[in-house]
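Take a specimen:
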Amino acid sequence: MKKRLLILVAALGLALGGGAAQSAETVKIGLMAPLTGSWASEGQGMKNIVALLAEQQNAKGGVLGKPIEVITEDDGGDPRTASLAAQRLTTKGVVAVVGTYGSSVTEASQAIYDEAKIPQIANGSTAIRLTEKGFKHFFRTAPRDDEQGRMAAQTIGKLGFKKVAILHDSTSYAKGLADEANALLKKQGADVVFFDALTPKESDYTAILTKLKGANPDVVLFTGYYPEAGQLLRQKKGMNWKTPFIGGDATNNADLVKIAGKEAAEGFYFLSPPQPQDLDTPEAKAFLTDYQKKYNELPPSIWAVLAGDGFRVAVAGIAGAKSTDGDKVADYLHTRLKNYSGLSGPISFDAKGDREGDVYRVYKVDAEGKFVLQKL
């Protein structure tokens, strides 16, 4: 009996040891995404695209001769949940992290990853201050709000609007974009007749819409997110108020039309990097065909694609550095990754971790609820 017990203990030890060895034989890349909450459609798109890219990369041999394992944590689109999700990922052996969506959510995780020396590549976080803190391990495939602010002011000028109302939601992203656009619009001679914030996740915005209407603007620039934009458009139509709205890039999501309804959404302008269907490189087209085949739909927005680019950049950094060491990977991304062929176009990073180059476009929602690229 004693001998049998010793044999069982030895066998169990071998099994556990084998499991640990097997785990060490994968390269773990983390994904932090809003899989629940009001941005869940973005999070699901991020999860789907990273899963498919990992599957395709593993079919080519993974990275450093090992398969890639994606470890996913739900940040719920909330800064408090994000800090906990980041802490969990740092304990799971990840060597890089993709995500997340939402500047204030990303901001809650930055210091955690930087302290752990884990490169983080955010995909939907455009607030200027995120790359002004000196974090050596932070990167983003999304552009910055100052670029978007210039595009917003330029677009409003080209469309001939003189009296502008600006509405934000007090988040890091929305307030930063609102401030940037406000300064630039005033500099180019526009009359900013309204500047205020709404409270996110409310069901009735009639009061703020009434204040906006009373300011009698030619156009309203809303710098918040797509759930609130959809509500505003739907309730604006109910008031029979026809002043056009322009949104920032966080309004770029198919759910905007579902929330607002096609009639209410028609004529809405927004700024964004190119929509998935407008990505024109052969590599992007081939991948989107694969994505549609697997999931029976296109990604919900460009932000999922930018998460995919974050994954690809992480893999390129590991392969280029020939190491999973966070300092070496970050150094490679800063100094040696130049014009990498991303799904969304060439990717290079400056010393702060910002993506270099101009990627913004102007879109307008048509009568069918489709997002149509504009040439202004």
User: Anything to note?
Assistant: Residues 1-23 have pLDDT under 50 and may be disordered. The longest helix spans residues 2-24. The two ends are 84 Å apart (CA to CA).
